[in-house]
Amino acid sequence: MRKIYHAAHIYMIVGVITGLYYREITKLNDFTGDTQLGVVHTHLLALGMLFFLIVLVLEKVFTLSAGGRLFTWFFWVYNGGLALTVAMMLVHGTQTVLGAETSPAITGMAGLGHIVLTVGLVLFFVNLGKRIPAKT
Q1: What is the pLDDT of residues 15-27, one digit of tens each?
Q2: CA-to-CA distance for 13 and 131, rounded, in angstroms?
Q3: H helices then E strands: how many in the chain?
Q4: Most buried one in 14, 60, 95, 136, CB count within 10 A?
Q5: Neighbour count for residue 106 (Cβ, 10 Å)
Q6: Stated pTM of the model
Q7: pLDDT over 60 at 136, yes or no
């Protein structure tokens, strides 16, 4: 349970920091257009902090971690997918604010991050389904 709590807490901290980063980099560069930096903090707070707070409650009710390797796979795959997605959003958004050309590889890596994130969600629901008791 502590691992889930720590994940939620770290995502909260990083989410707040990326919101500050967005505000400051756009202000310093007098940038007023659209950029992916504007949604990085909401991705981290919703898909990171809020999601893991919900997982924490479900852990308490259904003991999700008793799923063993399935839970471990979910935890690391999901976190890896979210980290890759957010990192690419940060790179793309920063390049947009600085007026730099964005490589198509950034978009491809972000897509890969979304795919990995989806695999993590599938693992989560498979594990949750196995931990919910069958109707008697």
Answers
A1: 999 999 999 999 9
A2: 30
A3: 5, 0
A4: 14
A5: 16
A6: 0.94
A7: no
